[in-house]
Amino acid sequence: MRLEGNFYTIHAITTGNPGEYTISAELFADHPIYKGHFPEQPVVPGVCTLTVIRECLAKIVGREVTFTAIKECKYLSALIPQSNIPITINITIADDSQLCATVVNGNSSQSVLKLRATIS
Questions:
Q1: 117, 93 contact by CB (below 8 A)
Q2: What distance in Å separates the CA atoms of residue 11 and residue 47, rounded to the nearest whole number?
Q3: Of 9, 98, 95, which Cα lies nearest the Cα of 56?
Q4: pLDDT of residue 82
């Protein structure tokens, strides 16, 4: 199931140096997933954050991608859906399969996730 369009939207994808991308996106605070994760204190599920990264990668490379290995995945802070959450995803792709990504909460400028992975 694709999350783009019902869990989040992409506002822009920009490129810097070769292999470097910045994605400006917004997570929707009213998505029904928060009723179960967690009703009293909703938090963006980590797996959804990884799915957003994977879907953004698919747009960048022009094909579906999968994570074949996750070498590092550190959640540094929680995303709390009190209102729609602007996020910035910074992705660096090396050798067409190695990537580093960070997710930053646009409301606080706080890093949320650091990822090093291999894709196919």
A1: no
A2: 21
A3: 9
A4: 84
3-class SS string, 2-64: CCECCCEEEEEEEECCCCEEEEEEEECCCCHHHHCCCCCCCCCCHHHHHHHHHHHHHHHHCCC
Collapsed DSSP state (helix, strand, coil) of residue 60: helix
Q: Is 96 left (phi over 0), alpha (psi -120 to 50) or beta?
A: left
**Nearest residue to 78 via CA among 28, 31, 41:** 41
Query: For the chain, where are the E strands, in sequence order?
Result: 8-15, 20-27, 67-75, 85-94, 98-105, 110-119
Q: What is the pLDDT of residue 67?
A: 97
Average pLDDT over residues 12-30: 96
Structure token digits, residue 22: 């910045």
Polymer length of the chain: 120
pLDDT tens by residue, 36-64? 988 889 999 999 999 999 999 999 999 99
Predicted confidence (pLDDT) at residue 95 exceeds the cutoff of 90: no
